[in-house]
Design goal:
With about 180 residues, the chain is α+β, with helices and mostly antiparallel strands. Helices cover about 30% and strands about 35% of the residues.
Length: about 180
C-alpha cells in the first residue's frame, strides 16, 4: 500500500480535489494536506510524497482530524527505528479516539511518516499526555534515531489538520486578509 500526500493552500488543493474526488483533504487555517492511498506508484499530483506503508489500522477518511509526524532517519538510526515502529504499531491499536493510522517509509528519501486520524481534534491533545506518545512519538523519543548523517536532513516535525468543515467553522470570523497569516 502506498500513501500519497501533498501540501499547499486550501484553495489550491480544493481545486485538485474537485477534479479527483478520490482525494481526501484536511486543513488548518489556509494550510492543507491532500492524501490518498493506492496499490502502486501512481500519484495524481506532481509534488507528492509517497510512502510505502508497513503498518496500518482503520480506514482513512476526511471527516476526522489528522496528525502527521515526519521523521527523517538515516544510517544506523534506520535499522533501530524499525523495531520502534513495530512496537508503536502494537501500542496505537489500543489508543482511545484513534480511528486510523499509517506508518511508512518515504519511497524517495530517508524519512518516515506516522499518519494518524482521530475521532476529533481534542483527542489529539489528550493523546499527547499518554505514555504511548511520550515513549514513541514525542521529539525526545524520536531524536535518539538521528545520527550525524541526519544533521543535513530536515528535522522531526508534526502537523495537525482538521476536517474542512471544522476548519472553516474555526476560521470563519477571521477577515479574509488575515486568513493568509493563519
Amino acid at each position: 500500500m502506498i500513501l500519497y500526500t501533498t501540501t499547499g493552500t486550501v484553495r489550491y488543493l480544493t481545486s485538485l480535489q474537485d477534479r479527483h474526488p478520490d482525494l481526501m483533504l484536511s486543513a488548518i487555517g489556509q494550510d492543507a494536506i491532500l492524501y490518498r492511498e493506492g496499490e502502486e506508484e501512481n500519484p495524481v499530483f506532481d509534488s507528492a510524497s509517497e510512502y510505502d506503508i508497513s503498518y496500518q489500522y482503520g480506514e482513512l477518511n476526511q471527516e476526522n482530524a489528522v496528525s502527521v509526524y515526519y521523521v527523517p532517519v538515516s544510517g544506523s538510526g534506520e535499522a533501530s527505528i524499525l523495531g520502534h515502529f513495530s512496537d508503536l504499531n502494537q501500542k496505537l491499536q489500543n489508543v482511545k479516539g484513534l480511528t486510523a493510522y499509517r506508518i511508512g517509509r518515504a519511497l524517495h528519501k530517508d524519512s518516515y511518516i506516522i499518519f494518524t486520524q482521530w475521532a476529533d481534534s481534542s483527542t489529539i491533545s489528550d493523546f499527547k499526555d499518554t505514555d504511548t506518545y511520550k515513549n514513541f512519538l514525542a521529539p525526545d523519543a524520536l531524536k535518539k534515531f538521528r545520527n550525524i548523517g541526519s544533521v543535513f536532513q530536515s528535522s522531526i516535525s508534526t502537523k495537525t489538520y482538521l476536517p474542512i468543515k471544522e476548519n472553516e467553522d474555526k476560521y470563519k470570523d477571521i477577515p479574509e486578509e488575515e486568513k493568509e497569516d493563519c
